[in-house]
Design a protein that fits this description.
Layout: E1 2-7, E2 16-21, E3 29-38, H1 41-47, E4 64-71, E5 83-86, E6 89-91, H2 97-100, E7 112-113, E8 133-137, E9 142-143, H3 159-169, E10 177-181, H4 185-196, E11 200-205, H5 211-217, E12 221-224, H6 228-233, E13 238-243, E14 258-266, H7 279-282, E15 287-290, H8 296-309, E16 315-319, H9 323-331, E17 338-342
Parallel strand pairs: 10-11, 10-13, 11-12, 13-14, 14-15, 16-17
Antiparallel strand pairs: 1-2, 3-4, 3-8, 3-17, 4-5, 5-9, 6-7
The protein binds NADP nicotinamide-adenine-dinucleotide phosphate (NAP) and zinc ion (ZN).
The site of zinc ion has 5 residues, from loops.
Length: about 350
């Protein structure tokens, strides 16, 4: 099927219209017309090749919401006309212990990403959700409860699950004290979700300018990470800190904020960080951990939780042709708190 999207042709080129072909649905595939796609900081990292290994043309986008237009012969979970969603994963081996434990993101044979991954069957580079259409294996397509507002649901598929998974893993709930470092796309979802779970939530931001927003999102307080006096007073205050900062940064100021047995979960910077001191780890059994998105079953659980509790991201809707400006604004942390692309703004695919 012919479709149109926006692609980066190199690490230095801007995203521009790109006409390409989506495969015909295989027996277990679902064909989706994309209605909305969220803009994740990872899309920017991939387009610019910040992590190395980007393949061009690169069509980013893994916060996808759409409507089913066709299904393969063996599809049982989805029907034509259903509203569905796709996140960061479009395939995995489904055979290994991790896949059997519903943790496809840690598949022993490597998961297939929604973009920038070789397709498991034909080896072609996957192209993501900044496009009119996508074709995805049904096991990786999520159901959407009709209480969810489609225009604001996309960011749950990455920002939502990446926050939800560590909150669940480290038992966030009434009485737990959670810090969220970086109030951006992931951070604002971490605040909403942790607050909905009943936790006491503190935002750790570079700036006090976000205080009113933080409180409106459900946080109890905001701590300015550069305020050394306030940071010293906050020693031993948290059970869990979710660190969403997207660049190389010093985590040493955060570690003493954890209580004994507390955990700093890094979800932002993929790569290296300046050396962490072992002192707060040894003198307090504190831990540094990481976490990658979440599995498909947990993503469905998170979507259902958000539908039940009426949790939606705060979004700014953009046209597809505003994506380059949106990337620049995201780099300046000038988004409150997630851009979503309205795919109706894309021209129709070229005929013939
Ligand atoms: P985002 O919307 O740009 O938010 C990042 C926030 O971090 C900003 O709002 C800002 O908050 C803070 N920040 C930005 N630049 C900073 C700097 N130079 N120094 C210190 N703080 C800075 O990004 P996002 O979409 O939430 O993504 C965050 C990171 O998570 C990205 O690196 C992304 O690739 C990664 N990610 C990881 C996973 C995973 O599975 N682990 C999934 C999705 C995304 P303040 O202004 O409040 O300080
Ligand atoms: Zn993402």
């Amino acid at each position: 099927m012919k479709t149109i999207g926006y692609a980066a042709q190199s690490a230095t080129s801007k995203l521009a219209p790109f006409h390409f072909e989506r495969r015909a649905p295989r027996a277990t595939d679902v064909a989706i017309e994309i209605l909305y796609c969220g803009v994740c900081h990872s899309d920017l990292h991939a387009a610019r090749n910040d992590w190395g290994g980007s393949v061009y043309p690169c069509v980013p986008g893994h916060e996808i919401v759409g409507r089913v237009t066709a299904i393969g012969a063996d599809v049982t979970r989805h029907a034509v006309g259903d509203h569905v969603a796709v996140g960061c994963l479009v395939d995995s081996c489904l055979q290994c212990d991790q896949c059997h434990h519903d943790e496809e993101q840690y598949c022993r044979h490597g998961y297939t990403g929604t973009y920038n991954s070789p397709d498991r069957i034909n080896g072609e580079n996957t192209l993501g959700g900044y496009a009119r259409h996508i074709v995805v294996r049904e096991a990786f397509v999520l159901r959407l409860d009709n209480r969810l507002d489609l225009a604001r649901t996309g960011p749950l598929l990455c920002a939502g699950i990446t926050s939800y998974s560590p909150l669940r893993r480290w038992n966030a709930g009434p009485g737990s004290r959670i810090g969220v470092a970086g109030l951006g796309g992931l951070g604002h979802m971490a605040v909403k979700l942790a607050a909905a779970m009943g936790a006491h939530v503190t935002v750790l931001s570079r700036t006090a300018d976000k205080l009113a927003d933080a409180l409106a999102l459900g946080a109890d307080e905001l701590l300015v990470s550069g305020d050394t006096e306030a940071m010293a007073k906050a020693a031993n205050r948290f059970d869990l800190i979710i660190d969403t900062v997207p660049v190389k940064h010093d985590i040493n100021p955060y570690l003493p904020l954890l209580d004994i047995d507390g955990t700093l979960v890094i979800v932002g910077q993929v790569g290296t960080l300046p050396e962490p001191s072992t002192v707060p780890m040894i003198f307090g059994r504190r831990r540094i951990a990481g976490s990658l998105i979440g599995g498909i079953a947990e993503t469905q659980e998170m979507l259902d939780f958000c539908a039940r509790k009426n949790i939606h991201p705060d979004v700014e809707m953009i046209r597809m042709d505003q994506i380059n400006e949106a990337f620049e604004r995201m780099e300046r942390a000038d988004v409150r708190y997630r851009f979503v692309i309205d795919m109706a703004s894309l021209p129709a695919p070229q005929a013939g």
